[in-house]
Specification:
This protein has helices spanning 5-70, 72-104. By secondary structure, it is mainly α.
Length: 108
């Protein structure tokens, strides 16, 4: 019994579809591998950067602590001055907003 041309074309089409699936599968695996490698490299870079930033912060904190230990009087004076300036700024802001609020409450 001879195959008719439609069945033969169907077999060829099925074979082409199988080849296309295999090709797409291989390309997908390659792309996933490349993406995995890039993500791993990016995470390693971010981890290194975070570690460097943490080490820098530790070094700076140690430097500040050393200065504070060497000059306790200057440090306490600087902190006291910063507190006084902050208090004065807060006082002036509070009194200026209070005067502004009083002017809005006049009913006469």
């Amino acid at each position: 019994m001879a195959d008719n041309p439609i069945q033969e074309q169907m077999r060829e089409l099925q074979a082409q579809i199988r080849e296309l699936r295999e090709t797409l599968g291989l390309q997908g695996e390659r792309a996933a591998g490349q993406l995995r490698q890039r993500a791993t490299a990016a995470l390693e870079g971010a981890s290194r950067t975070a570690g460097d930033a943490a080490q820098y912060a530790r070094n700076e904190a140690a430097t500040v602590a050393g200065v504070v230990r060497e000059h306790p009087a200057a440090t306490s004076t600087a902190l006291l001055m910063a507190g006084l300036i902050g208090g004065l700024v807060g006082y002036f802001i509070a009194t200026s907003s209070e005067a502004h609020q009083r002017s809005h409450y006049r009913w006469y």
